[in-house]
Amino acid sequence: MSRPLSTLAWQVAIVAVLLALWQWAWSLKPYAPWAVPDLFDPYFVSRPSEIFEQFLRLSCLQPKPGEWAMPGGTAFSACTARYENNLWFATFVTLRNTFFGFLTGVTSGVVLGLLLGRSPRLAEIASPFVTAVNSIPRIALAPIIILAFGIGDASKIATSWIVVVFLVFFNTFEGARSVDPDYVNASRLLGASEWQITRTVIIPSTMAWVFASLTPAVSFALIGVIVGEFIGAEFGIGRLIIESEARGEAAGMMVAVFVLMIVGIVLSAGIQRMQSYLLRWQPRHQGR
């Protein structure tokens, strides 16, 4: 237990030092300008104390200075009704669109990867088309998607999907092609059908490849939604960032950035836990 506790202590100490430098370093700028980079200018990155205060306001936990509101209370309800895109609802909207974009992107990427990975002829026919579409920067398609689907949730899900699908597809495709032919031949020798081979040999063997793409895929799904919200949205964390930028409020933007960071960490941890469970038969996932 000493090693995990030591690691945690170092992590906490590093965070504490970084927050202290962030909070007070700019105050030393007049005395030692050579030692304090312009990055610490509060106009650009605010200060941790101001970010925390802005978090309380955006989350309706402190609607007015000195006035605290508990979730479910009258003041809290009035604040959330007055500010429709409050931090709680904005996070919910972004998470919902990220979930659907991630789910559709992973599902279609796995299906296409297995289909082309199991059929060399189909892979040969589709290769130039896949290469052509994959060469387009996906984010460049976001304005077209907004134009086609509007500023509602559908455009955010579509943007998230198009960012995720190719990432999962290529991993699944390579995984399906890398299955040991001896396993496939042995299954055929035992009388297994193509569907049985796919279900019992190809898919389990490809799972490690698929999960290798899921951790970055969930981050890319979140990125796709945020980009869509930057371009046009009624609600969401991306909309909060744009509104704060328009008002010149660095603290508001940093609150949204920290929320996105926490959301990304939670989602990645969930994917890793699911990976450890589904791939528990592998030695490196045993005992986790």
What is the CATH topology of the largest domain? MetI-like fold
* Overall SS class: mainly alpha
- Summed over residues and divided by their number, the pLDDT gives a mean of 85
What percentage of amino acids are in beta strands? under 5%
Tell me the name of the CATH class of the largest domain: Mainly Alpha
Number of domains: 2
Q: From the alpha-carbon coordinates, what is the Rg to the nearest angstrom?
A: 24 Å
What does this structure look like?
The chain has 288 residues and is mainly α. The chain folds into two domains: 1-40, no CATH class; 87-285, Orthogonal Bundle (MetI-like fold), CATH 1.10.3720.10. 74% of the residues lie in helices and 0% in strands. It is built from twelve helices and no strands. Helix 7 crosses helix 8 and helix 9 (181-189) packs across helix 10.
Q: Summarize this, please?
A:
The chain is mainly alpha-helical and 288 residues long. It is built from 12 helices and no strands. It is a multi-pass membrane protein.
List the helices and strands and how they pair.
Blueprint: H1 2-24, H2 42-45, H3 48-58, H4 74-82, H5 87-118, H6 120-134, H7 142-149, H8 153-177, H9 181-189, H10 194-231, H11 237-247, H12 250-278
Helix pairs in contact: 3-12, 5-6, 5-8, 5-10, 5-11, 7-8, 8-10, 9-10, 10-11, 10-12, 11-12
Short descriptors:
single chain, 288 residues, mainly alpha, MetI-like fold, 0% strand, membrane, cell membrane, transmembrane, MetI-like_sf, transmembrane helix
